């Protein structure tokens, strides 16, 4: 085992990747713990993060390529050496800023330290062959074997490639997978109770960041490089909240008004609850439910930091009937497979399965059914999930309308992007390659008034 208190980002990446493969822990948690314990410089922290995230993201692709050049089956290569090869190949194929000689030499050093001189020679020869012949790497024919092509070329499980092919076809799925493998943009939602969009734009521009408006949401800014937003003192002061634009669009779909009573049934860590509070000008009541008391503490913490006083946290399981009076607006931002966030969380693609997605879709329907009972006549129900699957998105939305005749489709804000040919005015599937956001499904429903 490599000592975690060290300053070599590549050796530390090997250990982190081993931990990920063996423990099943979330990659972000592993990364944070390793950075906290290491003695990496700030520059090397960036390289370490890139190597770990990138190698996990492209693992299937890297293994496919390594096997084309290896005289040994991958399964017979020592697991730690396999990680060295993956990290080396990732640098050669996907990191332009690392010279090929450095990528190979550092991999050889790591192999020598982890094994012996013979292994170091094997690693040296294999990686140099990849570097010399990377233009000759071949993939399955996309027209003859589209699932295998998409899976190996873009490093997604075959079941996921098959699912997306059925939904969007080859050309669209390829664009989607390309977008999910791109470094995600850092988006922030301006806390308009504290500051203004123009003030924050000027603040980050003066620091040297490139700042762009969000593609749709009026209170979102995109900041590049992202570390300007993550490390700024204004974050702790509550001037903004780090939040993908797709997520920020959910509160705008709810469109809560000052003085109303709003329920957020799956609220932690509070991004959407606090966003709705700022749209309400901190006037009214938001009841934020979550099944986890520990996660509700994050809602309280974020509310306090953002200067919000109308959010009341309440522990409860939204998949069970809710003992609560009816509200003006109810948000169900349901637990989901999270496939729309794979740009930020590359390990999700290796964690999920079709069976789990079916279980989640059933859970989402339970929550929607309970939510339907606590919407006032004339009130609004919004359903959102940060995923890409039809079963968790459009299928569940259609199920609600078929099951609860008192609900009808309700329009989304007119400034939302126009619906695609397969969408209706009351729901949208946001996709990274189309909209520049995480993958998000948002649907809006209205409960009929008693006179209707």
Main traits of this protein?
alpha/beta; 8-stranded mixed sheet; 4 domains; 12 strands; 49% helix; 452 residues; globular; 14% strand; 4-stranded antiparallel sheet; 19 helices; Alpha-Beta Plaits; N-utilizing Substance Protein B Homolog, Chain A
Q: Spell out the CATH superfamily of the largest domain.
A: Vaccinia Virus protein VP39
> Which consecutive residue ranges, at least 5 long each, have pLDDT under 50?
none
Output the structural class: alpha/beta
CATH class of the largest domain: Alpha Beta
Instruction: Give the strand tally.
Output: 12
Average predicted local confidence, pLDDT:
95
What is the number of helices?
19
- What is the strand content? 5-15%
Helix content: 40-55%
Question: What about the largest sheet?
Answer: 8 strands, mixed
Distance between the first and last residues' Cα = 69 Å
Shape summary: globular
Describe the fold and architecture.
The protein has 452 residues and is of the alpha/beta class. It has four domains: 9-136, Orthogonal Bundle (N-utilizing Substance Protein B Homolog, Chain A); 146-180, no CATH class; 186-242, Sun protein, domain 3 (Alpha-Beta Plaits), CATH 3.30.70.1170; 245-447, 3-Layer(aba) Sandwich (Rossmann fold). Helix content is 49%, strand content 14%. It contains 19 helices and twelve strands. The chain has helices at residues 9-23, 27-37, 42-57, 59-69, 79-94, 100-114, 117-133, 146-154, 158-180, 197-206, 227-230, 233-236, 245-254, 271-279, 293-305, 348-351, 354-373, 394-403, 432-435; strands spanning 186-190, 210-213, 220-224, 240-242, 261-264, 285-290, 311-315, 327-333, 375-385, 407-409, 427-430, 440-447. Strands 5, 6, 7, 8, 9, 10, 11 and 12 form an eight-stranded mixed sheet that branches. It has a four-stranded antiparallel sheet with strand order 2-3-1-4. Strand 6 (285-290), helix 15 (293-305) and strand 7 form a beta-alpha-beta unit. Helix 1 packs across helix 3, helix 5 (79-94) runs antiparallel to helix 6 and helix 8 packs across helix 9 (158-180). The relative contact order is 0.08. The mean pLDDT is 95.
């Amino acid at each position: 085992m490599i000592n975690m208190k060290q300053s070599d980002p590549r050796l530390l990446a090997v250990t982190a990747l081993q931990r990920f493969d063996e423990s099943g822990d979330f990659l972000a948690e592993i990364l944070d713990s390793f950075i906290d314990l290491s003695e990496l410089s700030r520059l090397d922290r960036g390289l370490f993060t890139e190597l770990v995230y990138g190698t996990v993201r492209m693992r299937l692709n890297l293994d496919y390529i390594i096997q084309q050049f290896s005289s040994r089956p991958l399964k017979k290569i020592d697991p730690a050496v396999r990680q060295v090869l993956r990290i080396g190949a990732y640098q050669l194929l996907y990191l332009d800023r690392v010279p090929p000689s450095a990528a190979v030499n550092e991999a050889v050093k790591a192999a020598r330290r982890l094994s012996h001189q013979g292994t170091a020679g094997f690693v040296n020869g294999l990686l140099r062959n990849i570097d010399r012949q990377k233009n000759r790497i071949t993939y399955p024919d996309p027209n003859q074997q589209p699932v295998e092509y998409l899976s190996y070329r873009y490093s997604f499980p075959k079941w996921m490639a098959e699912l997306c092919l059925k939904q969007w076809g080859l050309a669209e799925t390829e664009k989607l997978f390309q977008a999910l493998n791109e470094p995600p943009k850092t988006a922030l939602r301006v806390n308009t109770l504290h500051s203004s969009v123009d003030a924050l734009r000027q603040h980050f521009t003066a620091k040297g960041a490139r700042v762009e408006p969000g593609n749709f949401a009026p209170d979102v800014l995109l900041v590049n490089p992202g570390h300007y937003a993550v490390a700024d003192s204004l974050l702790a002061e509550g001037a903004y909240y780090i939040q993908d634009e797709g997520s920020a669009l959910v509160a705008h779909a709810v469109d809560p008004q000052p003085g109303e009573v709003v329920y957020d049934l799956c609220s932690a860590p509070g991004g959407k609850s606090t966003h709705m509070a700022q749209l309400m000008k901190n006037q009214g009541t938001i009841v934020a439910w979550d099944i986890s008391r520990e996660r509700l503490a994050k809602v309280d913490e974020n509310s306090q930091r953002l200067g919000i006083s109308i959010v009341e946290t309440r522990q409860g399981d939204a998949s069970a009937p809710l003992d609560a009076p009816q509200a003006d607006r109810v948000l169900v931002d349901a637990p989901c497979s999270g496939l729309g966030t794979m740009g930020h969380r590359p390990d999700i693609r290796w964690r999920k399965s079709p069976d789990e997605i079916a279980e989640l879709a059933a859970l989402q329907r339970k929550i929607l059914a309970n939510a339907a009972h606590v919407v006032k006549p004339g009130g609004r129900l919004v359903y959102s999930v940060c995923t890409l699957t039809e079963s968790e998105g459009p299928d569940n939305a259609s199920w609600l309308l078929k099951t609860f005749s008192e609900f009808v489709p309700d329009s989304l804000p007119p400034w939302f992007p126009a619906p695609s040919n397969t969408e209706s005015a009351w729901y949208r599937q946001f996709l990274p390659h189309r909209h520049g956001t995480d993958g998000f499904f948002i649907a809006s429903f209205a409960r009929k008034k008693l006179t209707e």
